[in-house]
Amino acid sequence: MAYTIALLPGDGTGPEVMREAVKVLTSVEDAFGVSFDREPYPAGGRYYLDTGAEWPDGAYESCKAADAILLGAVGLPEAVLPNGDLAGIGVLFGLRFGLDLYANVRPTKLYPNVRHKVHDGFKQVWDPGKVDFVIVRENTEGLYTPTRGYLDRGGVKELAIDSRVITRKGAERVIRFAFELAKTRKGAPGDAEHRVTCVDKSNVTAGCRLFRAVYDEVAAGYPAIRRDYAYIDAFLQWLVRSPESYDVAVTSNMFGDIATDLAAVLQGGLGMAAGGNVGAEHGMFEPIHGSAPKHAGKDVVNPIAMVLAAQMMLDWLGRKRGDRTLLQAADVVERAVESVLAEGRVLTYDLGGPAKCSDAGSAIANAVTRLAKKSP
Ligand code: IPM
Ligand code: MG
Question: Of 103, 179, 247, 329, whose CA is between 20 and 30 Å from 138?
């Protein structure tokens, strides 16, 4: 099968990690006989500085027409739009809102031989198997709804308002997504129970009360999955204290944004954290880290988050198209990452090793070739 993949490497270290993900996809092509037609587009802060636009005309339409989208990272501190937004965010939001990618799926899994970063970053407190949960973040409303503005009086900014919008439709579909995801998983590592935690602030906000009420309605249709509730503040400390009790958590947009950066600490840092932006029709996959301009061009950052984003893309596309080969490839890519981590010879600086970004990418690509031969 041939699939068209739109590639948006973006800014800073985005192009470096994207190169490694493409290396891994090339191994997948060779090993599994699939083909990925790559359609690269420049996008982000650099492109804006050079051209005055955040991405080329037609790039959005091409992303929409592609079978899937991979994004590196967008944004540079010096590239700011006249309205104060960072250039490149329009690309991210253009895709999330334009393609209605309502579920932002962010797995947190601590792989063997990776140290979480809660203490000094190099002590292993949890058995890796104890951190394996997914935060599903609503991705099209909440505090990200473009209902904001200023009150200017006499040229003075006197008031700024951001309104947080929670709708029944937005809540319902993302909560259902979380329950459907829970059906495909092994349950919480601590007790193997399938559980979807509703994370909100329903003790205070009206939107969260609606979110929780809709959660209860949806949950009623999934009697085999345990209901669980947490206020966002308490959730964050429970998550750090006992990550093994979580399986899937579902929450509104900005709570999810904040919670997933914290969660990344439990899996070895942002260099390990991947995410998928998924809607009914389209999917865009990205590492959750930013463009890290201070590391750009040095070939030092960890490409694993980007590689795992590509892995999520294979899994999503495989399920969507009923393509077992892609599902097998997704499994092999994850095992390739695991094997490189377990061997511990090619680790980037954030994981305590001296390897370069490109070395780590090549090691994973080679492991894909090796493991695919053994794959049934
Ligand atoms: C993320 C990022 C974005 C967000 C930024 C870059 C707008 O933090 O994907 O988590 O807030 O969604
Ligand atoms: Mg974020």
Answer: 329
- Report which protein residue has its CA nearest ligand 1's atom 6: 89
Pocket test for ligand 1, best of 145, 257, 260 (most atoms within 8 A of CB): 257
Atom of ligand 1 nearest to the CA of 139: 12
- Compute the half-sphere exposure of residue 284: CA atoms within 13 Å on the CB side of its CA: 29
Indicate which residue's Cα is closest to atom 12 of ligand 1.
257
Cβ of 74 closer than 6 Å to ligand 1, yes or no, is: no
Q: Give CA–CA dist 13/69, Å, rounded.
A: 18
Nearest ligand, measured from the Cα of 287: 1
pLDDT digits (tens, 9 = 90+) for 291-319: 999 999 999 999 999 999 999 999 999 99
Separation CA 292–CA 266 (nearest Å): 20
Q: Is 143 exposed, middle or buried (0-12, 13-18, 19+ CB in 10 A)?
A: middle
Phi and psi (nearest 5°) for 288?
A: -85, -10
CA distance to 44, 141, 225, 257, 315, per residue, from 215 (Å): 36, 16, 12, 19, 26
Check if 118 has its Cβ closer than 6 Å to any atom of ligand 1. Answer: no
Is any atom of ligand 1 closer than 6 Å to the C-beta of 342? no
Residue ranges with strand state E in the chain: 2-10, 35-40, 68-73, 103-109, 132-138, 148-153, 156-162, 195-200, 226-231, 248-251, 274-278, 283-287
What is the residue with the minimal CA distance to atom 7 of ligand 1? 89
- 376 pLDDT band, cuts 50/70/90, is low
Query: Amino acid identity of 53?
Result: A
What is the pLDDT, as a whole number, of residue 372?
97
How would you classify the pairing of strands 274-278 and 283-287? antiparallel
Token pair of 249 as six digits: 């958590």
Rounded distance from Cα 273 to ligand 2 centre (Å): 11
How far apart are alpha carbons 22 and 110 in whole angstroms?
24
Q: Which helix (H) or strand (E) is 170 found in, with range?
A: helix 168-183
| Ligand with the closest atom to the CA of 105 | 1
